[in-house]
Amino acid sequence: MDTAQTLDRGLRLLTLVADTPGGLTVTEAANRLGVGRAVVYRLVTTLTEHSLVRRDSGGRLRLGLGLLHLARRAQPLLADAALPALRRLADQVHATAHLTVADGDEAVAVAVVEPSSTMFHVAYRTGSRHPLASGAAGRAILSDAAGWTVSTGELQPGAYGIAARIHHVEGLRASVGVVALAPLDTPTVGPLVVAAATTIAAALT
């Protein structure tokens, strides 16, 4: 039971640090977790040994580089699960389809599929980042709505985007979207994007 409790506290601390972009002190972490400072110190020591947490020059707790390794291992699995639905969506809509996940205050494209039937389309690179509050993909992630989000020229002049959030996947803040060089038929494309998001959610659960 003690081992399980320690693991639970360690994971809660890791989540707390991840949700606090500016970092936090040991005292702040102890107060937020409802435990003593000594407990937090022990947890930090273990997490630091595995490079999951680090202490900056001011002594504040921040995420460690070890999490980047874990994230890089997880992203290909996420992309592989999404690719069939993205390919189908790209060819249905004749536009570039993408899977985007939240990374702090930014949206990151982790999988991109270009349509096979068009000569000209938006070039959107895997790994591209932009603020969550800008563009259809980011705003869809921030939205709790079951429908879709539309954007026009927010990230690239002349580009049109439609995106829908992926719901019901624990721990995942992500969206599926399409981006095109011409206005999209929203009443037609919106439901296709939502359907792709639902399909990907099912593949991940």
Automatic annotation (TrEMBL):
Q: Any keyword Transcription regulation?
A: yes
Alphabetically ordered keywords of this record: DNA-binding, Transcription, Transcription regulation
Database matches in Pfam families? HTH_IclR, IclR_C
In its UniProt record, a GO molecular function of this protein is: DNA-binding transcription factor activity
Q: Does the keyword DNA-binding apply?
A: yes
Q: Name one GO biological process term.
A: negative regulation of DNA-templated transcription
Q: Which InterPro entries match?
A: GAF-like_dom_sf, HTH_MetabolicPath_Reg, Tscrpt_reg_IclR_C, Tscrpt_reg_IclR_N, WH-like_DNA-bd_sf, WH_DNA-bd_sf
Instruction: Please name the SUPFAM superfamilies in this protein's record.
Output: GAF domain-like, Winged helix' DNA-binding domain
IclR-ED domain: from which residue to which, for each copy?
Answer: 59-205
Q: Which residue range or ranges hold the HTH iclR-type domain? A: 4-65
Q: Which PANTHER family match?
A: HELIX-TURN-HELIX TRANSCRIPTIONAL REGULATOR, ICLR FAMILY, HTH-TYPE TRANSCRIPTIONAL REPRESSOR ALLR
Recorded protein name is Transcriptional regulator
Q: What organism is recorded for this protein? A: Catellatospora chokoriensis
The organism's taxonomic lineage, starting at the top = Bacteria, Bacillati, Actinomycetota, Actinomycetes, Micromonosporales
